[in-house]
Amino acid sequence: MSFFRHKNIKIFINYFLGPLLFLVLSYSIYHQIKDQPDLEQTWSRIKRSLYSTKVWDLAAVFLFMILNWSIEAVKWKLAVKKVQEVSFFRAFKAVLSGVSFSVGTPNRMGEYLGRILYMDEGNRLKTVSLTIVCSISQLIITLLIGCIGMAVLLPDIRSAGMLSSPWNSVMLYGVMFALLVISLFYFRLGWLVKLGERFLANNRYAYLVRSLEDLDTKKLLLLLVLSALRFWIFMIQYYLLFRLFDVDVSWWQGFWAIAVSFLVLAIIPSFAIADLGLRGKVILGMAGLYSANGLGITIAAGAIWLINLVIPAIIGSLLILGIRKMFKTKNERN
C-alpha cells in the first residue's frame, strides 16, 4: 500500500505540480520581460552578439562545463578511493550518469543512483554515503559564499523591497545556523558512523556508513577546495553569458547576485520540469537589481541550465543504456 502511495505522490509531483509551477514561474518571467524598456533593441543587440566574436564566450562556457564535471569526477574518485580505485574516465562517466538520475529528483538529490552503477558488486552501497558527502561539500561552499553575498547585498535587497528587514535577518541567521550545523557534522563524520552503528538494524547495515571513517580532515578539506573551484567555474560561466547577452553588470555585482541566487535555489525544493522556471525567476530577481536587461538575464540562466545540466544528463542517460546492455550480456553468459 505504501508503495502505491509513494508512486502516486511521485506521479502528482512530476506530472501535475512540477508542470504547474513551471507554467506559473514562466508566466511571471514573461510579464517581467514584456515590461522591459527597449525590449526590441535589446533583442537586436543579443542577436548581433551571437554573430560577433563574443560567440567565443559561448564556446568557453561549454569548455568550462567539461572542466566543471571533471572536477566533480576528481572529487568522487578521491572520496571512494579507499572503497575502490576507479580511473578518472570511469569516475567521469559515473558523474554524468548521476546527473541523468538526479534531474528526476527534488534538488537533484538522486546523483548517487547513477554513480554506484560504476562500482563493483559489493562496493555499491558502501559508496552511497561517500557520494552524499561530496554533495554536502558543495552545499557548504554554496551556503558559505551565498551567506557572504546576502550580507554584501543586504542594502540593495532591502532598497528593492524584495524582503522586509525582519525576513532578511531571519534568512541570513537561519542560513548561518544551518551552515554551522552542516559543517560540524561534515568535519565530525565519526559521529555519524557511531549513530549509524547504533540505529541501523543492530549493525546489520552499519557498513553503509563505516566507509565515512576513511575521509580524514585532509580529504574533507580537499573536497571543499574542489567544490570552491566548481563554484568559481559557475561564476565565470555566468559572467561570460552575461557579457554575450548584453547584461550590463560588473563582475562584483554579478558574482554576489549569482551567489545569493545559488543560495536560494539550494534552499527551495524544486523538481525537474520546474527547475528552469525557478532558476530563471530567482536569477532574474537578483541580477535584475543591477541590470534592466531581463531578457538577457533569462536567456543566460536558461543557457546555463541547458549546458550544465541537460546536455550532461543526456550523455549520462546514453552511458546508462550502455551499462544496462553490459549487465544484460553478463547475466546471459551466467
Tally of strands:
0
Give the count of structural domains. 1
Which spans of ≥5 residues are poorly predicted at pLDDT below 50?
1-6
Strand content: under 5%
Q: What structural class is derived from the secondary structure elements?
A: mainly alpha
Instruction: Give average pLDDT, whole number.
Output: 80
The helix/strand series, from N terminus to C terminus, equals HHHHHHHHHHHHH
Q: What is the radius of gyration computed over CA atoms, rounded to a whole number of angstroms? A: 21 Å
Shape: globular
Described by strand count, sense and barrel closure, the largest sheet is:
none
Count up the helices.
13
Assembly form of the protein: single chain
User: Termini separation (Å)?
Assistant: 35 Å
What is the helix fraction of residues, given as a range?
Answer: over 70%
Summed up, what is this model?
With 334 residues, the chain is mainly alpha-helical.
Question: In terms of topology, how is this protein built?
Answer:
Elements: H1 2-34, H2 39-50, H3 55-79, H4 88-102, H5 111-115, H6 126-159, H7 165-186, H8 189-199, H9 207-210, H10 217-244, H11 251-267, H12 272-287, H13 294-333
Helix pairs in contact: 1-12, 3-4, 3-6, 3-10, 4-13, 6-7, 6-10, 6-11, 10-13, 11-12, 12-13
